[in-house]
Write a structure and sequence with these properties.
Blueprint: H1 5-9, H2 25-58, H3 70-99, H4 101-105, H5 111-118, H6 120-146, H7 150-176, H8 178-186, H9 198-225, H10 232-276, H11 291-320, H12 322-330, E1 336-349, H13 352-358, H14 361-381, E2 385-390, E3 393-398, H15 407-425, E4 431-446, E5 451-456, H16 458-470, E6 477-480, H17 481-486, H18 489-492, E7 495-501, E8 510-515
Parallel strand pairs: 4-6
Antiparallel strand pairs: 1-3, 1-4, 2-3, 4-5, 6-8, 7-8
Helix pairs in contact: 2-3, 2-7, 3-6, 5-8, 6-7, 7-9, 7-10, 9-10, 10-11, 11-12, 14-15
Length: 516
């Protein structure tokens, strides 16, 4: 069996012990049951061992190892511990199964089932607490019937151990039930029921891990001052054992509670790093019912908003062009424009009407898409902008909305390259190409509710007329003399002047140039 290295790199639920979110319901249910049984059984057995050591060897009082306590030590305590383990395990499994039946069945929970599922750690803790308090009553009574002086010592020790075990049980149950909580929190809206908050977890961990043992030291001191003197050696042993127990229990509970808090924070931090790197589809698994779960959910909402914004930006850029979209983001679009000196290229397919008559509509669309693909790729290569697609034609601008140092060179070079590429990339599709240079007004035209970015001016009209004339020339491309003269010498040397002609809509003749 191969080890999934991604599981070790980024556990979705905060720990590799909890598996992955995409596991089957059966595997996740088995994992939850095993984790709960092992952690609860282990914490309870440790609690029993600590209580036995404190009662038999540490705390002041009668010697409970004497023969008069034989019946209590060999019958009452073992029988109750065994029954509590069996009953507690069955009780916890039954309580968990009833509340996560929806999870086992593979369906979404109702709002009531979701709340009951998120309250399961508290339910497990109450079961543990009831068994420990019942044990304190039964065992303390058994020893007290033999010697009443054992009641304070036995009762306090079992209660102290039970409280620490209950604190650990809550945190272990909260940890083990994360896979189920993740599914519950991923469906529907977050429940408004009150749960144990993050700050309350830390306070409870401190109270059970440090407060209760310190209270035990105070009780021992009061017990000694009340007329039950102890030797210095015995008092030192009591202080050392209770102090060590306080350190260990406090470390365990605080580690568990802080781990429960840091898990969601780490998942959000890792996800933020991926979003920063551009992977906007990243989401975190929401498995915490406290404020930290709200943080996880808030991150997912933020990431979804960024992804949607990026999608809309990409869609907007595809419709109007990347440069126009970026300009609209930087400055709010307003009707009107500004004067700019730009290069203009107009490209129009020859015989598109006949092609539409003799070909199927799907074939026409396919040819147009291949044609426009070449146009867009070439225009972007020369940093131009496709201003608009006009049926079977395209209007291309160099120098607006993004300014350009040499729009003339870009325009005539783009026109020449298009004349070379189109016959190769789109066989059988002939297109006239016209290039010009001049002053235009570039900006937004339309109404306040609907407008578009475009360029208006004599250079646009001249490029369109040159495109029409180019359809009757062998090379299918013409550029104005003004555009060629303002281009850099290397590009201008690639063109020849073939005469001049007054194009439709103008009074002055336009010098005509063709590629060599």
């Amino acid at each position: 069996m191969r080890l999934d290295l991604s599981l070790l790199r980024r556990p979705e639920l905060g720990s590799v012990l909890l598996g992955r979110e995409r596991e089957s319901a059966r595997v996740r249910t088995l994992r939850v049951q095993v984790l709960l049984v092992l952690t609860l059984l282990g914490s309870n057995l440790v609690g029993v061992a600590v209580a036995a050591v404190l009662i038999l060897l540490v705390l002041p009082g009668p010697d409970l190892t004497s023969s008069r306590f034989l019946w209590a030590n060999t019958v009452v305590v073992p029988v109750y511990v065994l029954l509590a383990v069996v009953v507690g395990t069955a009780w916890v499994r039954s309580a968990v199964y009833r509340r996560v039946r929806w999870f086992v069945d593979g369906r979404d929970p109702t709002d009531d089932e979701r709340v009951r599922t998120l309250r399961l750690p508290g339910r497990v803790t109450l079961i543990q607490g009831f068994l420990w308090m019942l044990g304190a009553a039964v065992i303390t009574t058994a020893f007290g019937l033999i010697d009443p002086e054992t009641i304070p010592m036995v009762g306090f020790t079992i209660t102290f151990s039970g409280l620490v075990v209950c604190g650990a049980a809550y945190l272990f149950a909260d940890f083990g039930l994360r896979p189920v909580a993740a599914v519950a929190l991923s469906t529907g809206t977050a429940p408004r029921a009150r749960f144990l908050g993050a700050m309350t977890r830390l306070r409870v961990a401190w109270a059970l891990g440090s407060g209760v043992p310190i209270a035990g030291l105070l009780i021992v001191a009061v017990y000694t001052l009340a007329g039950r003197p102890m030797s210095v050696e015995r008092l030192a042993v009591v202080v050392i054992v209770l102090g060590g127990t306080s350190l260990l229990a406090g470390f365990l509970l605080v580690s568990l509670s802080t781990g429960a808090m840091l898990g969601p924070l780490r998942s959000v931090r890792r996800a933020m790093e991926e979003v920063t790197a551009g992977r906007l589809a990243r989401r975190v698994v929401v498995y915490d019912g406290t404020e930290l779960g709200q943080l996880q959910r808030g991150f997912n909402q933020m990431a979804a908003g960024l992804q949607e914004r990026q999608r809309l930006r990409d869609l907007f850029g595809r419709h109007v062009g990347r440069d126009v979209a970026e300009a609209a983001e930087l400055h709010d679009p307003e009707l009107g424009g500004r004067a700019s000196r730009v290069g203009v290229v107009f490209v129009d397919i020859v015989g598109s009407t006949e092609m539409a008559v003799r070909s199927e509509a799907g074939e026409v669309v396919e040819v147009l898409n291949r044609f426009f693909t070449v146009v867009v790729e070439t225009v972007e290569e020369y940093d131009g902008v496709v201003d608009s697609f006009l049926g079977d034609a395209a209007l291309v601008v160099f120098g607006a909305p993004r300014s350009m140092e040499d729009p003339a060179t870009a325009a005539v070079a783009c026109a020449r390259t298009l004349a070379e590429r189109l016959p190769e990339r789109v066989p059988g599709c002939r297109a006239g190409i016209g290039a010009s240079l001049g002053d235009v007004v570039a900006g937004y035209v339309g109404s306040d509710d609907r407008f578009e970015y475009t360029v208006i001016g004599d250079a646009v009209n001249e490029a369109a007329r040159l495109c029409d004339l180019a359809k009757d020339h062998d090379g299918l491309v013409l550029a104005s003399g003004a555009a060629v003269r303002e281009a850099d010498p290397a590009e201008a040397a690639r063109w020849d002047t073939i005469g001049a002609q007054v194009v439709r809509g103008r009074d002055e003749p336009t010098e005509l140039c063709v590629p060599r």
